[in-house]
Amino acid sequence: MTEPLLLTATQISTFDGTRLLTRASGFFFLREERLFVVTSRHVVIDKPSKHFPNRIEIELHTDAANLTRSTGLSVLLYQDGKSIWHQGKDPSGEIDVAVIELDRTALPDSVVLRAFTPDHLQASLSEIEVGAALLIVGFPLGFHDTLHHLPVVRQAVIASSFGLRFQGQGFFLTDARTHRGTSGAPVVMRAPASDIAGDLPWKLLGVHSARMDMRTRDRQEDESLGLNCAWYADILMTLTEAGDQPAVAGSPAPHDPNLVVARDLRVSSD
Fold first, then answer.
1. How would residue 120 be classed by pLDDT, with cut points 50, 70 and 90?
2. How buried is 29 (Cβ within 10 angstroms: 0-12 exposed, 13-18 middle, 19+ buried)?
3. Helix, strand, coil proportions of the chain in percent (round to 5)?
4. Among 235, 232, 229, which Cα is nearest to 247's?
5. Domain residue ranges in the chain
6. What's the CATH code, domain 4-246+255-269?
7. Which residues contact 84 (CB under 8 A, 6 or more apart)?
8. Cβ–Cβ contacts within 10 Å for residue 108, how many?
9. Residue 108, φ and ψ in degrees, nearest 5
10. Which one is predicted more confidently, 91 or 251?
11. Quick check: 224 and 211 in contact, CB under 8 A?
12. What is the pTM of this model?
């Protein structure tokens, strides 16, 4: 059996009918027996790039003793003309996180996965220090262990004050090498085993969204900043409330990959 952390993540493929569009990352979140898959919102809709999938597929392990066995679960993104994912906003604007509840009866009886829970969320932002070591668990450029269907991890550190939302936005910065396909990956920090019951001793701090760069950077002379946006994971408590209809659920708004979040900063989708 592999490390439980690797079983929290799943590769997400987006489709327009049978036509494959993109691949991205996601992870599982369990709240009161309700199971969700979490990813970036721009994975399920992105108007500027004319990215309009109508379904996604997630890969699931089906044999705990043999991780080479897997199956795909297809999930339609619209029902009766309305989007089925939950998304939200805060006073600073749209949040690049999407949550889809899965029908647990549609999962294989032998499904093998691990899910974060509310216990894995960080209660106090002030307890996390800048420079703290992190992992980002995902599928950069679609790369992964294709035999065992497992993600890879990239090392990262917190690059902005975790207690202060960067530029007033609902995200913090990480310093890590990331690529397309990492969007939607969980950003985690090791926690003492005594803090979290079970064998998944990780704090879920954020959802990786996009690379950040200087708009004024000389692309011939200056290297990329190597910084990334990670949306605070506490938004999951709002988006997974029982019977809740988030502020913009069913009303998909575009995610602009060139959104300027400060005068000299911009983000670009992963």
1. very high
2. buried
3. 10, 40, 45
4. 235
5. 4-246+255-269
6. 2.40.10.120
7. 75, 76, 77, 78, 100
8. 14
9. -60, 145
10. 91
11. yes
12. 0.86
